[in-house]
Design a protein that fits this description.
about 250 residues, 9 helices, about 75% helix
Length: about 250
């Protein structure tokens, strides 16, 4: 109600200003006929002005705002991979017994084009992300996620991510895995059936994590070459990757 009242007052004030200006024109120039022609002309042009303002300018503003939201969103995604995602993905890839196919297609270089990324994405979607973990490997993942739990909570609370369904699903899968692991005591005392259950939860997060990593890498390639370079040198799918820049 307060917002509507404010708009009503503003609109009324603007109309009164227009009436005052038109009245001043008549008083000064005594030319009501010209004013009548001008008003008819302006009313005829008003629909065109509405089209320009609402359809074109509003669209440009909306595109700019969306671009800014995407920029903030990718900053958050970058934080996730820096803090958790890359290390977690590296742990998962090691236990994927069929990861050789992924390793081959994800040897990304600085010359990758959009079509190359699309081919890689199709290969990844056809891959069966199924990794088998033992108690020791799950314990290492548990320790990583426990140490980064505050970061995960802050990411889930970030309203910027509401528009990014894919990344939100990834966070839910990772957070669910963290909860599953936290609810248990020593993992080496669990039965094989429960280890298999935890492996399935981990594999679900693994698939979402790998696909999101590729999307993020493609974004960096097109916007931040220096971050792209570091991401390639820490590629979790590349066994020979090193952050050290070789000559």
């Amino acid at each position: 109600m307060v917002r509507v009242g404010w708009k009503l007052l503003l609109g009324t004030g603007l109309v009164l200003i227009s009436v005052a200006v038109f009245g001043l024109h008549i008083l000064l120039f005594h030319d009501a006929h010209w004013l009548e022609k001008y008003l008819v002309f302006y009313l005829g042009f008003l629909p065109v002005e509405v089209i320009v303002v609402t359809l074109i300018l509003d669209r440009l503003i909306e595109m700019r705002e969306r671009q800014e939201r995407m920029e903030k969103m990718n900053m958050v995604i970058g934080l996730f991979f820096s803090e958790i995602g890359t290390s977690l993905l590296r742990m998962m890839v090691i236990e994927d017994r069929s990861a050789s196919e992924l390793r081959n297609c994800l040897q990304i270089t600085g010359q990758c084009k959009p079509d190359d990324f699309n081919r890689i994405r199709q290969t990844m979607k056809g891959h069966e992300f199924r990794a088998e973990f033992d108690a020791g490997e799950l314990t290492a993942i548990k320790e990583l996620l426990s140490s980064k739990r505050p970061t995960l909570v802050r990411l889930l609370e970030n309203p910027v991510l509401l528009e990014h369904e894919v990344f939100t699903n990834l966070l839910r899968a990772v957070f669910h895995l963290a909860e599953e692991l936290d609810y248990r005591g020593p993992l080496d005392q669990l039965p094989d059936s429960d280890i298999a259950h935890l492996s399935r939860d981990t594999s679900r997060a693994y698939e979402l994590l790998a696909l999101q990593w590729l999307d993020y890498i493609q974004y960096l390639e097109g916007h931040y070459p220096y971050l792209f370079s570091l991401a390639l040198r820490t590629n979790p799918f590349d066994e020979k990757a090193s952050p050290v820049v070789a000559e």
